[in-house]
Amino acid sequence: MIGKIRFGLLVGGLQVGSLNAQNWRAWNFSITDHTGTEVARVTKTWEGLGRSMFTTADNHVVQLHRPLADPLASMVLASALTVDTVLKQSSD
């Protein structure tokens, strides 16, 4: 993939938000609602050189900026759980 990665969060064919990579490395993501306002952030944490060399496990932190209603709340959780899987599959 070239450039910043963006995923639409769709429910019933309507976009309720988006997941947006902050840079080309795709370690940090902002999550916006349908108006483009950031409502959450997903950040990949650094576990140190030793752990990074011997495992492929990644940790992500989800920070909500305010309480969210469904379906956006569920989409934020789902995107945080799947972002690493999707990006690793696309790099194979």
Descriptive account of the structure:
It is globular, with a radius of gyration of 14 Å. The protein has helices at residues 49-54, 72-91, and strands at residues 6-11, 14-21, 28-33, 38-45, 59-64. It has one domain. Strands 1-2-3-4-5 form a 5-stranded antiparallel beta sheet, covered by helices on one side. The relative contact order is 0.18. The mean pLDDT is 81. The protein is built from 2 helices and 5 strands, in the order ββββαβα. With 92 residues, it is α+β, with helices and mostly antiparallel strands.
The chain-level structural class is alpha+beta
User: What composes the largest sheet?
Assistant: 5 strands, antiparallel
Low-pLDDT segments, ≥5 res: none
Distance between the termini: 11 Å
Q: Taking strands numbered 1, 2, ... along the chain, how are they ordered across the largest sheet?
A: 1-2-3-4-5
Write the H/E string, N to C.
EEEEHEH
| Number of individual domains | 1
Mean pLDDT across the residues is 81
Q: With helices defined by DSSP (H or I, 4 residues minimum), what is the helix count?
A: 2
Helix share of residues? 25-40%
What characteristics describe this protein?
alpha+beta, 92 residues
Question: How do you describe this structure in short?
Answer:
The chain is 28% helix and 37% strand.
